[in-house]
Amino acid sequence: MRVIIVGAGQVGRSIAANLQDTHDVIVIDKDDTIISNLTYSLDVLAIHGNGTEQQILREAGVEKADLVIACTDSDEVNVVVCGTAKTDSDAFTIARVRQRTLLTTWEGSQGAFGVDFMVCTDLLAAQAIFHIAGLPATQDVETFAGGLIRMAEFELKSTSPVAGQTVQEADRYDSLTFAALFRGEEMRIVTGDTELRAGDRVIVIGSPESITSFAEDVTPTTDIEPDEIVIVGASEIGFQAAREFEEHGYQPRLVEQDHDRAQEMAELLPNTLVLESDATNIDFLETEHIDEADIVIAALGEDDKNLLVSLLARRLGIDRTVAVIENPDYLDLFEAVGVDVAINPREETAEEIVRFTRADYTEKIAMLEHDRAEVIEIEVDQDSILVGRDISTAVADLPTGVVIGAISRRGELVTPRGATVVEPGDHVVVFVDAAILDEVLDMIS
């Protein structure tokens, strides 16, 4: 497939890196330095120019393109790129936007602006916040097979009852598969003898009930459902996060310093208590009993302020903090100083677009640890290496780094064990080392 990517920031570069091995990728950017770096760092054709100009798109071969992805930092530029591409091509167009209002307009008129698929960065980040907030100690959560199967990544604390146990000792759930763990920079496929240690990030796949039971065992002193939710900052992500919680029956508190913005939020969020104050004021935090919150979400417009709010929340004794971070270079720093989860909106966007580009092969994709591994859902046919064989035999023929996590068969969950036989039409959820993903897809799809 010929793919043109306009915009080589974090989103565009991440998409290009994911697609370079399996597609012909052309990247367009106005920054000559970025283009020079791409030429030497990725296996792509890098073109210096303005992607809204028809001549530049023609230079990139837009008339032969199958897919055009517009992912600059400007919503308007991205929409224009898609419209311009449509004048010379039948390519499928994807636009990245930050404004939900633009997404709503597009949804109300299919194909508007020449955009075939629109991804809203702030909405994706808000949805990620909501999903992560529902389970304690979770770093990432995704659902598969229409909600029948769930994948979650948990960080084990030293106080966790399963820390120090082997996988065999910790595996006491009817429908749960321990897939892998990340220990520092190392990724390990687990076996029954693998010891779970404090600091490990453990990947489990199974039914929502089993995932919840495991979460309760990981942090037994924490309520599984957060009752007191505090969102700091009425940025667009903060606003969208509050809406997500409201839509699922929660009544969050939202702290915003700007008077006009706080008033606007109070009108738009009927089930949210909006507090007008500076959230870095420790006296205010104590007076408003922010220390009683189950989770604090820092969604201010600046990374340093989000870090400060998270640290203040820790000082008040709040168990769980989530921070929005725009600069990906700070991700490890935030988590190193005690922020439980740092969410990068651009990373969420790149992941969503990459998922869409693989729609021909997979039903759904979740990327883990900055795409060091992926969990994929595939409907297998008669030609798959998995079909008609027990899993222990089939997996032995696959590269190291693959775990069959769960199976959806005619709407029912099948927990895979060594003797389980995969049938044609099964939806199989698989953990895969990203380095061997393409090879594995060829073998099992």
For the structure shown, list the relevant keywords:
single chain, 445 residues, alpha/beta, Rossmann fold, Alpha-Beta Plaits, 6-stranded parallel β-sheet
What can you tell me about this protein's structure?
The chain has 445 residues and is an alpha/beta fold. It folds into 4 domains: 2-115, Rossmann fold (3-Layer(aba) Sandwich), CATH 3.40.50.720; 126-218, Alpha-Beta Plaits (2-Layer Sandwich); 229-346, 3-Layer(aba) Sandwich (Rossmann fold); 349-444, Regulator of K+ conductance, C-terminal domain (Alpha-Beta Plaits, 2-Layer Sandwich). It has helices spanning 10-19, 32-41, 54-59, 75-88, 100-107, 121-133, 167-170, 208-218, 236-247, 259-268, 282-287, 303-315, 331-336, 345-357, 391-396, 437-444; strands at 2-6, 24-29, 45-48, 67-70, 92-97, 117-120, 138-144, 149-155, 176-183, 186-189, 201-206, 229-232, 253-256, 273-276, 295-298, 320-324, 341-343, 364-368, 373-379, 402-409, 412-414, 427-433. The strands form 4 sheets. A 6-stranded parallel β-sheet has the order 3-2-1-4-5-6, sandwiched between helices. Strands 14-13-12-15-16-17 form a 6-stranded parallel β-sheet, sandwiched between helices. Helix 1 runs parallel beside helix 14, helix 6 (121-133) packs across helix 9 and helix 6 (121-133) packs across helix 14. The model has no long low-confidence stretch (mean pLDDT 92).
